[in-house]
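#onboarding

Welcome to the new folks! Below is a worked example of what a typical request in this channel looks like: someone posts a single protein sequence, and someone else replies with the predicted structure as tokens. Don't worry about understanding the tokens yet, we'll cover that in week two.

Example request:
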Amino acid sequence: GIRRVSGNFLRLSAAMSLLAVVAGCNSSNPSDSLAVNPPAAQANAVTPVVQANCPTVTVLDANAVHRVYAGGAKDDPQKLAYQVSLSDTTRSCTANESTLTVNVLAQGRLVPGPMAKPGRVTVPIRVTVKDGDGEIFGETTNFAIDLPAGAAGTQFIFNYDHVAIPNGPGGAPRSVSVYIGFAEQGAKAKTKRR
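Example response:
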């Protein structure tokens, strides 16, 4: 009976150490290792490039709200056509030897104002990557949102899947950060439909 128990114990401890190694490679967050199950661990172990650092996405407070007024008015609540805001964000990363690609998702809300008209509106959303103080990537997308009739407003998901960051050993440098916010009026932008 003793031999069988020790054999099982050895197999179990070998499996646990494999799980710990795989979980440690796939995440910079130690608590994530608790959620790894063996089939997923074996599948992940085959991936040739494992990213260690997937930069977080931060909504810039100063650019988190975009207001549009009717007739060119400014800061007049009675002339507000609509207000758009960005809130929660998430992201995922894929990597090859030279580039870390970040897929950025942000949840937003469009709220009509007193001068709102139902229809499609376009808002300039800018995704920026900074390494320290220097900008290494930036692009503005004219994002189309359908404003429904009525006073309820609508929620939307903004998805930008091609933020490209130079990749190094262990993923993007820790000094790299991804930001999202509304672009200043008049910025050149690419149009994207929802």
